[in-house]
Design goal:
Order of helices and strands: EHEEEEEEEEHHHEHHEEH
Strand order of the largest sheet: 1-2-9-4-7
Shape: globular
Distance between the termini: 44 Å
Structural class: alpha+beta
Radius of gyration: 18 Å
Length: 227
């Protein structure tokens, strides 16, 4: 794992005041390999984190040993905010060379208390984290596997697009996660995810270039694709 004191921002978060800029004086940057843990479940919540480049997954392991992915973390996303003194979930990198900014929690909280803009923007990014989890609930509420995969692609198109509203123009999106990750996020089998993607391709809703690059051709078809 590589540690550097230099923090760079590969993607703006869209906030008027970027909390990463204010917190940069506290930041260390860490580089992680694919599948490497950023922190473990039940680890003391001593730091805040932000994805600078690459991507990560927030996971939990169920009593039966099955992995469940509850969130994907993309460049610009903050994470690690905890309502108690330990993390409820583990976080792992899913892209080789993922870079994460790490902020000491106590110093960051003191800075947020002293800086009204930072305090407000931290509340904004925590609200965004809650909104992502609410979106996942809606995705899982879709009827059938085709509806779930379609809703997932729409979510990723919105989050990964490099231009505001670019998704409606058919911009390609490069998914950083594997189909196994998508399956564990949607509580489906990987075979079911693959069949759903093939069905969406055959009906002309999407175009697949390799296993991870997707172009959405007809948004309405995805939005109305409950089985």
């Amino acid at each position: 794992m590589h540690v550097s004191s230099q923090l760079r921002h590969d993607r703006p978060t869209g906030h008027r005041h970027d909390p990463g800029d204010v917190l940069s004086s506290l930041a260390m940057t860490m580089r992680y390999g694919h599948g490497q843990e950023i922190y473990t479940q039940d680890r003391p919540a001593e730091y805040w984190y932000r994805v600078v480049s690459g991507a990560a997954r927030r996971i939990t392991v169920q009593a039966n040993g099955r992995r469940q992915i509850v969130d994907f973390l993309l460049p610009g996303d903050f994470f690690g905010f905890a309502s108690r003194n330990a993390h409820l979930f583990a976080v792992e990198a899913i892209v080789e060379g993922t870079i994460v900014a790490v902020y000491p929690r106590e110093r960051a909280e003191a800075l947020a208390d002293a800086n009204p803009h930072l305090g407000r923007d931290i509340r904004t990014v925590t609200a965004a984290e809650i909104a992502r989890l609410q979106t996942r609930i809606l995705i899982l509420g879709r009827i059938g596997s085709l509806g779930k995969v379609s809703a997932f692609l729409l979510e990723m198109a919105e989050r990964l697009s490099s231009r505001p509203q670019a998704g409606r123009s058919g911009e390609d999106i490069l998914l950083p996660m594997s189909r196994y990750d998508i399956a564990d996020y949607l509580t489906l089998s990987v075979e079911t995810v693959s069949r759903a993607l093939t069905s969406l391709k055959q009906c002309g809703a999407i175009r697949l270039v390799g296993t991870r690059r997707v172009r959405i051709i007809h948004y309405d078809a995805l939005e109305d694709s409950d089985e």
